[in-house]
Amino acid sequence: MKALVIGASGQVGSHLVQTLIAQNCDVRATYHNHQIPDAAPLDITKVMETNALITSSEPDVIYLPGAFPNVDYCETHPAETYEINVRGVKNVVDAANQTNARLVYFSSEYIFDGISGPYTETDIACPISEYGRQKLFAEHYISLFSKNYLIIRTTVVFGWEWQGKNFIIRLINSLKDKRSIRVPADQISSPTYVNNLAQIVVELSLSDFLQNEVINVTGPDCLSRYDLAVAAAQAFGLDASLITPVSTAELNQPAKRPLQAGLKIDKLIASSNIPPTSHHDGLLLMAKQHPIT
Q1: This prediction's pTM
Q2: Dmax (CA) of the chain
């Protein structure tokens, strides 16, 4: 099988590439701002560039984790980020249709308002941030115009990745340096171990079980960011007393966050042979792979 991973320099994209290679797939990868070995540059906002690369790759499946995920930057720069998160997705959908490739798109719990989570795939979306609106717009375009798609909703993805941008890695670095960190105690969500996410998504995408559907792929737990941070400190043997619980409002962030959120995974349990990894086990696997010395 030929696979194209758009956004392979990011956390999810890099693990998708590793998982696909382990499955003996013929993988082509792209990057935008952060160059990586054996990958092609691609700006999905450019129609002709996107069409040319997808056409020449002749993929059976296109994975699209690539996006502009900085929630606060999206809030303050809506026009700029819309070009990537919505128009860029449209360009990929149109090119995928021309080559009869299956599109696997990564969406987010941020399409919900966080009033009555955790959410199922059929709950009504009501985003409260620009990023959430952009992800929902992209979902709508895919569901209306893509010939063959799978929309993956996930959230709070953590694990080792070379850019070191995810919540857990930034937390570990702060605690290692004995720096205190404030973490919201009122944001409830479903932490997702990235290695497990990639394995499940590849399994689902290579199967004909789900066609033109949405599926939540997260870990099995719902807990606050603060509780996740404390669990991470314990897994790595770091000082959890440096972590201060605060309210989201105290952080004064430009974009609103869904508070009582998270995603239900009953559909995932019925669709995949790979069990979802708990946040506890995911953190222990991280600590085992790269222990703090």
Answers
A1: 0.97
A2: 55
